[in-house]
Amino acid sequence: MTISIPTPPRQQRPSANATRERILDAALDLFADRSYEGATTREIAARAGVTQPLLNYHFHSKDDLWSSAVDRLFSQFNQALNARRDGLHGVDDLSIAKLMIREFIYFSAAHPQLHRIITQECKADNARMDWLVQTHVRPLYDTAVSLFSQLVARGEVPAIAPTNLYYILTGAGATMFVLAPECRRLSGIDPMDPGAIEAHADAVVELLFGPSASTRAIRTTHEQTRGTEMRSAKGHL
């Protein structure tokens, strides 16, 4: 009798694209945490679980790896903004601004590397920063400043210079997520919790545009209740 021994299934090698994405994930984390100079391609390869020659096959230099990681990050950011904007046809500019700001905050929470990378390159202040600003940051800045200028002219946001509003937004919108370990220790709040992200988005929108009707109603009810309690307390004195 012939015994047939089944052939073990061949192990599937990860696709080249999946390997490339894994390398980019590792590179983004290390460049954001340690800076371009502080991160080595050897560390990035180890973090991605690939060999140095395989990393070199996908990316011909450290500069190529850095710019590819940054390109992908900003591409994801623009895709998120465009997806939100595409669903807002016929919506007024004020509502669009509020919703786009919320999208910015959601992305900042999911990808704090965006702001860490910019901060790292600001410290270096060299040709990489020039490329980063001209290629990715300036188009976003110009769009935001144009929108803020229109809102200021219509009195829908405080009469603050649009550049200041831009930095108020980027600072207020992203810092809690960039400094998440500090936030957890100081407040006991996990800024990456979905409820905390939503509450932060509410707070930033209210900071820039003032309280919404629903927020004002809640505050009015709270103040009325508080006033009744205080009058009742005085009556018992």
Report a brief summary of the structure.
This protein has 237 residues and is mostly helical. The chain has helices spanning 16-38, 41-48, 52-58, 62-86, 93-110, 113-124, 127-153, 162-178, 180-187, 194-209, 213-235.
3D architecture notes:
The chain starts with 15 loop residues before the first helix and ends with a helix. It folds into two domains: about 15-60, Arc Repressor Mutant, subunit A; about 70-235, Tetracycline Repressor, domain 2. With about 240 residues, it is mainly alpha-helical. It has helices at about 15-40, 40-50, 50-60, 60-85, 95-110, 115-125, 125-155, 160-180, 180-185, 195-210, 215-235. Residues about 1-10 and about 215-230 have low confidence and may be disordered.
Rg (C-alpha, Å): 24 Å
Mean pLDDT across residues: 87
Number of helices in the DSSP assignment: 11
From the structure provided, what is the oligomeric state, counting identical versus distinct chains?
single chain
C-alpha end-to-end distance: 103 Å
Q: How much helix is in the residues?
A: over 70%
Query: What is the number of E strands?
Result: 0
Give the amount of beta strand, in percent.
under 5%
What is the H-and-E element order?
HHHHHHHHHHH
**Which outline best applies?**
globular
How many domains, as an integer? 2
CATH class of the largest domain: Mainly Alpha
CATH topology of the largest domain: Tetracycline Repressor, domain 2
**Sheet with the most strands?**
none
Layout of strands and helices, then pairs:
Elements (H helix, E strand, L loop, with lengths): L15 H23 L2 H8 L3 H7 L3 H25 L6 H18 L2 H12 L2 H27 L8 H17 L1 H8 L6 H16 L3 H23 L2
Helix pairs in contact: 1-2, 1-4, 1-6, 4-5, 5-8, 5-10, 7-8, 8-10
